[in-house]
Write a structure and sequence with these properties.
Distance between the termini: 54 Å
CATH topology of the largest domain: Nucleotidyltransferase, domain 5
Structural class: alpha/beta
Shape: globular
Strand order of the largest sheet: 3-2-1-4-5
Radius of gyration: 18 Å
CATH superfamily of the largest domain: Ribonuclease H-like superfamily/Ribonuclease H
Number of domains: 2
CATH class of the largest domain: Alpha Beta
Order of helices and strands: HHEEHEHHEEHHHEE
CATH architecture of the largest domain: 2-Layer Sandwich
Number of helices: 8
């Protein structure tokens, strides 16, 4: 079995069970201190092959952008789910991620009859599904979803950078880099920071509550 063939083994197993429309689902942005968590759902043709598609974390920014364009043209359907920081704070990051995944499935132009989900958790939807640990490196449709989710989130964070350049979201994408933490210490939080996330023992809710960002 080649590496390319191995990447669609979960999809092939689902089809052997009688399922025909298989969607891969992954998220981007569970760990950052700011910005949304975004999920993508991608349906590929049954015989789809592209050896370039892999876990988005293994790809460069340029490679992800190229493959995002390829998937826009060649995927059967793509759905996106976005959950912003206030909801993350209200329900916790796990529940926000599952909500984003559910919205991504709802956003597909055709209804899947089987879901392959990256990670340990199933989505609260009445669709047969399978959680695949490290699925973004083991399933071509989940890997495709990881690329779409990552590129989509990076683009959103680049837009937020234009609103809040003091945090340099263009570079850190909301993750807790030293530069980002120092900016929080200097300017306080802005509206896209996750108030429920803590760094270095500091509760965001106690930092510059009255800044007009």
């Amino acid at each position: 079995m080649t590496a390319v063939q191995a990447m669609d083994s979960f999809e092939c197993d689902a089809r052997r069970k009688g399922y025909r429309v298989v969607a891969g689902i992954d998220e981007a942005g569970r760990g950052p201190l700011a910005g949304p968590v975004i999920a993508a759902a991608v349906i590929l043709k049954a015989d789809y092959r592209d050896p370039r598609i892999d876990d988005s974390k293994k790809l460069t920014s340029h490679q992800r952008e190229v493959l995002y364009g390829v998937l826009e043209q060649e995927a059967v359907a793509i759905g996106i789910g976005v959950v912003e920081a206030p909801v993350i704070d209200a329900v916790n990051i796990l529940q926000a991620t599952l909500t984003a995944m559910k919205e991504a499935v709802w956003g597909l132009s055709c209804r899947p009859d089987y879901l392959l989900i990256d990670g340990l958790n199933r989505i609260p939807l009445d669709i047969p599904q399978e959680a695949v640990v490290h699925g973004d490196a083991r399933s071509i449709s989940i890997a495709a979803a990881s690329i779409v989710a990552k590129v989509s989130r990076d683009r959103i964070m680049e837009m937020y950078h234009r609103q809040f350049p003091q945090y340099n979201f263009l570079q850190n994408k909301g993750y807790g880099t030293r530069e980002h933490r120092e900016a929080i210490a200097k300017y306080g939080r802005c509206k896209i920071h996750r108030n429920s996330f803590r760094i270095d023992g500091i509760d965001f809710r106690r930092v510059s509550e009255d800044l007009p960002f």
